[in-house]
Amino acid sequence: MTVSGRVTVGIPTINRSNLALRAIQSVLDQTYRNIEVIVSDDASTDDTVQRVRAIHDPRLVLFEQKQRLGLVGNFDFCLRHASGEFFLLLGDDDVLLPTAIERLIEPFLHPPASISSTSVGVVWCPCRIADANDAQFWTTEAGPPSESAASLLAALFAGNRGPRLSSILVRTRDALAVGGYEKKYGDLCDIGNWGRVALLHEVAVCVREPLVQYTQHHGSTTSQSPVQQWQDWAQIVHADLVTSARADRNAEQQLKLARTNFISGITLTILIQTIGKPGWIRNAVAQSFRTPAAIYTPYMFRRFFKDGWKVLAARRNSKKLRKK
């Protein structure tokens, strides 16, 4: 049964009790009260389950997985057990600011006069980038108040939009209609889902204020996965996004032209995550020989100089805080 107006926030988690408790509390503290919080613990070996059980709030539902579902499986489990009309997937190391849900749901419930509610596919916001100790580094880029899904995706691939996993609200039925979170997309299953959801509708709406704190740290899946694997996932995601856009020639062409940026952007994102780690320069040089078409592009150099210094500064600040 889907509850009208309810927002389900899914929090898949494993072995991050301190961070997961912080994420859960940020949802329970929302000014928008018609929420459901689904926590799916993927067979943690720490005290996550015990600590979540100690939270007494009827809006909180805990699922204890006895066998590992994996990242994609756990994402999909949260979605398929949602009772809300709307769905947001929150990383267990991320935080919603208090008015996040209230602001993100507004364009769905009360869109501007020029936009019908059925034409809105996704609502998103930029994010504050921080470390696990809440040290804030920078804010990702907002977009126009409204644009087409293809425009949002192409601009995201070009590095000019800043949605993250935890800053995107969709209709639950749409997320299910496109197949949920699919294993063929690997760790890019989030964009494989919301990107195709966006293409079901005419408009993507941006709330031009950072309402989510996205945590960037060495323990994230992004910082640990092989570049080639991410490139393979990106190829599959891009192909399916183009297929989803075929009803609109302009959107299809826009996404086709954005392919190189998408592959280069994914490559750079993974390489940037390694900055400051032992051997990161050697790894970057090796990757330049493996996939030169993704490395030697004007876009790649522009993005590196635009964003690379931010991550390097973040690494240095984190080290200083740990020393204190």
Describe what you observe in this structure:
With 324 residues, the protein is α/β, with parallel strands linked by helices. The protein has a domain at 227-323. It is built from 13 helices and twelve strands. The longest helix has 26 residues, at 298-323. It starts with a strand and ends with a helix.
**Overall pLDDT score:** 88
Unreliable runs: none
Span between termini: 51 Å
**Helical residue percent?**
40-55%
**Largest sheet descriptor:** 8 strands, mixed
Number of strands: 12
Report the portion of residues in β strands.
15-25%
Which class of secondary structure composition applies to the elements? Answer: alpha/beta
Strand order of the largest sheet: 3-2-1-4-10-6-11-9
- Report the C-alpha radius of gyration, rounded: 19 Å
User: What is the molecular shape?
Assistant: globular
Strand and helix order: EHEHEHEEHEEEEHEHHEEHHHHHH
Continuous helix count: 13
